[in-house]
Amino acid sequence: MVRDLLPLYLSKKTHPYSDELIKQHLENCEECAALARSMEEFTTDIPYFFEEEKKEEKRIDGLKKVKTRIKTLEVFIALGLVLLMLMLLWNIFRLRAM
Questions:
Q1: pTM for the full model?
Q2: Per-residue pLDDT tens for 6-65?
């Protein structure tokens, strides 16, 4: 069971009570302690990976907001053009009626 929790323990993601139990086990079990030492070099990269993933998500969210703003702007421009054309047509028909 301790072997399953080692990655979480090494990256400080376990409950303090679990930390104490795992620490006691590692003091008494050389096999698990050796495994923990060998895993430490890999778990130091885990926070960095998640940090980069969060940065990428923020960039994607920013791009989604820009895309939404562009779509909204396109809709307003299209509506403005339609309104402009209706005004021109209304003026043309009004001038012809005179």
A1: 0.43
A2: 777 787 888 888 888 888 988 988 888 888 888 877 655 566 667 777 888 888 999 999
DSSP designation for 68:
H
Q: End-to-end alpha-carbon separation of the chain, Å?
A: 93
Instruction: Report the sign of the C-alpha dihedral through residues 45, 46, 51, 52, in that order.
Output: positive
Q: Which residue has the tokens 């809709």?
A: 75
> Angle at CA 68, nearest 5°, toward 66 and 71?
110
Delimit the domains of the chain by residue range: 2-97
How long a stretch of residues is the chain?
98
Rounded to whole angstroms, the maximal C-alpha distance in the chain is: 103
DSSP 1: -
The residues, any chain, with a CB within 8 Å of residue 36's CB and separated by 6 or more, are 6, 9, 10, 26
> Phi and psi of 95, rounded to 5°?
-70, -35
pLDDT for position 93? 87
